[in-house]
Amino acid sequence: MTRTIPAEPLRWAGDRLIVLDQTQLPEQEVYLELTDPEAVARAIEQMQVRGAPLIGLTAAFGLVLAALNGPEHPDLFREALVRAADRLRRTRPTAVNLFRALDRMLALAGGLDPPGARAALLAEAERLLAEDRQATVRIARFGAGLLPAGATVLTHCNTGALATGGIGTALGVIYEGWARGKIRRVLVSETRPQLQGARLTAWELKKAGVPFVLITDSMAGYFFSRGEVDAVLVGADRIAASGDVANKVGTYGLAVLARHHGVPFYVAAPLSTVDLNTPSGADIPIEHRRPEEVLFVGSCRVAPEAVEVANPAFDVTPAELVTAIITDAGVLRPPYPESLALAVQKTDGTRQPTNGRR
Ligand code: MRU
Question: What is the pLDDT of residue 64?
Fold first, then answer.
């Protein structure tokens, strides 16, 4: 089934990158025009663009901008590209898609003169975008096949069109499941502190006409305990070789609840999110963000002055709690060290990310 994409979070416009400013949603649809890699890096850091696959794609176009703005001398051109890639790598540490995309782009520019490199880099960024779009379609089809009829599924954060170059990962499965008449309703957790569930997933599902109920993160246990969750579907920012999954903070708690209640816990992600160079979840760098994100909801302060705050943006779900990983290469089952390695080997074995190690 062909699906219409409910949002276009990123578009190349010939000499600039147009991105939808996700910090303004759902109140306003504001588009930003980015013309240099520093602006791209800031948009990623400030989460105007976010979601693992989309971060990688945005960074790839950031490198295209570095090339367009770069000097004509081949050595200086190469230096400018490497500098821009290093800056983009320092934006957010957890989603491996960022490092993978930058590696692929830099590897291409190697022996080319500046005009050749500019053309090659743009073509590669567009290829990455097309590949990601295609991957989301495949994930949606594989994942929808796992859902029982009349399912209530719980999802966390935003894994839809706003997070990818296509229809999404976990949310793509939900769109496809809805189109096949398998979904009764979706429970959307608000996803404190950045509210990607409330602001972004609710916005997408409303546009797409998929029935959903918004809940706060702490309400999940209530719905599990009443037998009102048939499956959990989440995305991933990095999947280690062991099958441990880093995803938006709160995911681990949902996986524990799912196991306790005998509910399947599915992770949907393209193979570009699998990092065989990271052995286990303990090796995944977890981003910690500003305390203000916890201290304020919008412009309203919700805690007293001078309190200590922790703000890890992601947590790690151990592989043993994951029922299946739905990828663009098919549905992978435990033992994940074997199934992940095989899937990667069959598709892009030579393209594992260096995570900044060159
Ligand atoms: O901090 P964010 O909004 O970039 O985090 C996003 C997530 O955790 C998503 O679940 C993940 O990137 C998968 S998106 C297809």
Answer: 98
